[in-house]
Amino acid sequence: MNSPTSSGEKQAHVVEQVLGNQPFRHKLSLVLYPDQVLRTVCRPVETFDSALRDIADEMLALMRQHRGIGLAAPQVGLRHRLIVCGIEDLLFALSNFEVKDFSEPRDFVEGCLSLPGVQVKVRRPERIRVTGYDLHGQRRSFGAVGLWARVIQHELDHLNGVLICDYQHPETEKCAHCPLELPTVLVEELKHESRPKRRR
Ligand code: ZN
Q1: What is the enclosing helix (H) or strand (E) of 99?
Q2: What does the alpha-carbon distance between residue 65 and residue 173 come to, in Å, rounded to a whole number?
Q3: Using one digit for the tens of pLDDT, what is the confidence trace for 121-135?
Q4: In the chain, how many domains are there?
């Protein structure tokens, strides 16, 4: 997800903090719409090893390079249930997670690193509870509110092949950059899908 308040200087500082003196490795690159990997229902992460942590590090660096606050594995061409998020200097990665206890839905205009220039008003719960696994396979459960809740739900959508353009009303708010590709009923089914067990 794009940062709603991008600040180049601050982002650069955070990248330095995250990567230290390591040069950015450029192994991964951003996948843009309409690449079909963005429509994948991703599979659970099964191995929590150093390779996974390297991927998450690279995803964080790539996210920061593009001034984003969240990035999901399919956005770098990987079909696994892995995301990274970072707001200001708080960064984390999460895998195989589900979101529960939705409350207080609110509209907010979102952008997406895979859909440059596209902005869509999306209604999402303001408060959620998240349960998943960190990069060492440890189970984590926490509450998220506001922008954190939003970015986690945006990235969860990516793991189910759902993009922000799917939230537009097809009749009144057609997005020229991003025509719908999935039947509405399937899109509705995929939205907020949070159980990695369900596969298609
Ligand atoms: Zn996105």
Answers
A1: strand 90-111
A2: 31
A3: 999 999 999 999 999
A4: 1
16 is catalytic: no
Q: Is residue 109, in this structure, part of any structural domain at all?
A: yes
Is the pTM above the cut of 0.85?
A: no
Token digits of residue 80: 């696994």
Pick the catalytic residue: 9, 58, 110, 155? 155
- HSE-up of 39 (CA within 13 Å, CB side)? 13
Please state, in angstroms and rounded to a whole number, the distance separating the CA atoms of residues 145 and 134: 19
| Domain membership of residue 58 as a residue range | 7-198
pLDDT, tens only, 4-54: 754 433 433 333 333 344 444 458 999 999 999 999 999 999 999 999 999
Distance 71 CA to ligand 1 centre (A): 7
Residues with CB under 5 A from ligand 1 (ion): 112
Joined tokens for residue 69: 């606050």
- CATH number assigned to the domain comprising residue 169: 3.90.45.10
Tokens found for residue 12:
């650069």
How many residues are listed for the chain in this entry?
200
